[in-house]
Each structure stands twice: as C-alpha cells, then as structure tokens.
Amino acid sequence: MTTTADPVTMTAEPITTLQFYPRRSALRRYFALWYFTTLLIVWNIAGHTSLGFEQSHLQSLVGLAAAIGLQMLLEWIDARTNCRKPRFAGSWANFLNFLPPAIIPGLALTMLLYPNERLIPVLFGVAVAICSKVIFRAPVADGKTQHIFNPSNLGIVATLILFPSIGVAPPYHFTENLTGMWHWALPCIVLVTGLIVHGFFTGRLVLVLTWLVAFIVQGQLRRLYFGTSWIVPLTPMTSAAFMVFTLYMIPDPATTPVKPLRQVLFGIAVAVVYGLLLVNHVVYGLFIALAIVCAMRGVGLYAWAAWQSTGVKAI
Predict the structure, then answer these.
(1) What is the rounded CA–CA span in Å between residue 200 and residue 22?
(2) Helix ranges restricted to H, the chain
(3) pTM, entire model
(4) Measuring CA to CA, how many Å separate 233 from each of 12, 77, 225, 273, 292?
C-alpha cells in the first residue's frame, strides 16, 4: 500500500492519465484540470448572475454535489477493493486535486442541458458521466486501462436520448445580457485562452485546429450538395455551446490520441460522423458524433491490445 501523500504517485489512475499529456507532466495535467475547472466555475457564476443562464441555481448545485459525492464513493470502493489509500485522503492537496474531474462534468452538464425544472435528468446525466470512467475502459499500456469517453459528453448524450423532453440549453442564454463589444469580447477571451492551454499544456492544439478545419470542409461539401448558402453550415460555430464543445470536450486529453497524426484522424472522424448524422436528420449531432468516435477508438484500443498479445509484430 502506498504511504506517500504525493497525489501523482498515490494511485495508478493518475499515472495512467499522465501518459496522455506532453512529457507525461503532472504539472501540465493539474494546470489543465484547474484551468478548465476555474473557467467553468466562473462561467456558471457569471451565467446565473449576469449572462442569463435559464437553469435554476439548484440544478447546478445538485449536479455539482452529485458528481463530487459519486466520484468519492467510487474511489473509496476501488481503494478498499485494492487495499490502498483513497486518492482524496492524506492531505488537503490530495483532496483538492481530486475534485476537478468531478467538478467539470458536474457543471458542464448543468450548463449545457436544459431540463426545465426537473432534477432527475441532472442526476442521471451526472451519474452516467462519473460512472462511465469506471465502466467504459480500454487497455492502453503495461496492463493499465483508461476511460474512453469524455464523461460530460457521454452524460449529455445519454440524457438527451433517454429523456426526449430534455434539450440542450438555448445558445442565446450564454450572452443574453451582454451588450456592445462584449458579444465579441467574451467568446474571444474564451477562445484565445483555450487555444493557449491546449497549445502549451494538453498538446491537443493539432486536434482542435483539425476539427475546426474539418467542420468547415464538411459544411461546405454539404452546402454544395444541397445548394444552400455557404454561411448556413457555419452558423453553429457562432454559438457558445460549439465553443465549449470544441475547446473542452473534443480535446479531452484522457480520451483522445497523443500523437499528432492520430489527433488529425480523430478530428476528421468526428467531423465526418457529424456530417453523416446531420444529413440523416439526427439532432444533437455534435455530442453524438464525439461519443461514436470515442467508442470506435475504444474498440481500436482493444483490437490493438489483442494484436499485440499474439506476439505478431506490426508492419
């Protein structure tokens, strides 16, 4: 049983996750997690007080509390099963660094979904998000496994599919109460800071840029086929939800490839699946496309592990 209080070496899970960050840097991982966490906290506080979020305060608090509580419960069960100290135990640093992976889906789901006044869909979505990290895993290296779905995205997809009365939050409520240049300033600030963190800390800038280019290309191909205006397929890019999806769901370091070429293929795959869903009149295509591609990547990881177990060398 590990006795050190270092949050990076206390358990196997953080070490596994570090494989998906540049140079396997714990500093980069914690900076990225706390950056995303801080941004979501600030955005939710500003949203409910100034920007015009239409969900209730209670839904955000319930989603946040459920995410933290469930993650702590699952960690405690796993620690007891494997006879080790829980990652949130030992020091305040351990406890605080344990929180971001729960805070992010807890706030992201309540920000992007609109369940009217209901709390059950919020609890369901959060439960799917947190539990997916334990249930849906694939081998990565040295007998270790890693979750394959972006938790927030999968929770949103499951809620939208199983609760037909639930929809995504209206795009206007992210900037409803802004006036003048703030309509442009706020999205630009989020965009620039997001690109910086992916360029220097997560190593996913190639994925983000590829996704944006591929999204534009598939939109223009659909425009040519259906004979619509060139600007129509690009209108989703103007929404805050698209920005959140682009900067904080697609480039999730724990669930996306590390190597630049594979990031390019991943970004193109999401855009292609989104385009196919759209022409087949499937709503919420962004979230569903990412879930499908993540599932395909998970199958690929299992297939690669099976190939390696045969002892046959790849060409």
Answers:
(1) 9
(2) 12-18, 26-46, 57-81, 92-98, 100-112, 120-135, 151-162, 182-197, 205-226, 240-248, 260-279, 285-309
(3) 0.89
(4) 44, 47, 12, 15, 21
Mapped onto helix, strand or coil, the DSSP state of residue 145 is strand
176/51 Cα distance (integer angstroms):
6
Cβ count near 54 (within 10 Å): 13
Q: CB of 71 within 8 A of CB of 129? A: no
pLDDT in tens, the chain (315 residues): 344 444 434 444 445 777 778 777 788 888 889 999 998 999 899 888 888 888 899 999 999 999 999 999 999 999 999 888 998 998 999 999 999 999 999 999 999 999 988 999 999 999 999 999 999 999 987 778 899 999 999 999 999 999 988 988 887 787 777 777 777 777 778 888 888 888 888 899 999 999 999 999 999 999 998 888 989 888 888 777 788 889 889 999 989 999 999 999 999 999 999 999 999 999 999 999 999 999 999 999 999 888 887 765 544
Alpha-carbon 78 to chain mean position:
23
Backbone φ/ψ region at 68: left (φ over 0), alpha (ψ -120 to 50), beta: alpha
- Collapse the DSSP code of 53 into the 3-class scheme (helix H, G, I; strand E, B; otherwise coil) and give the result: coil
Length in residues, the chain: 315
Cβ atoms 189, 183 nearer than 8 A: no
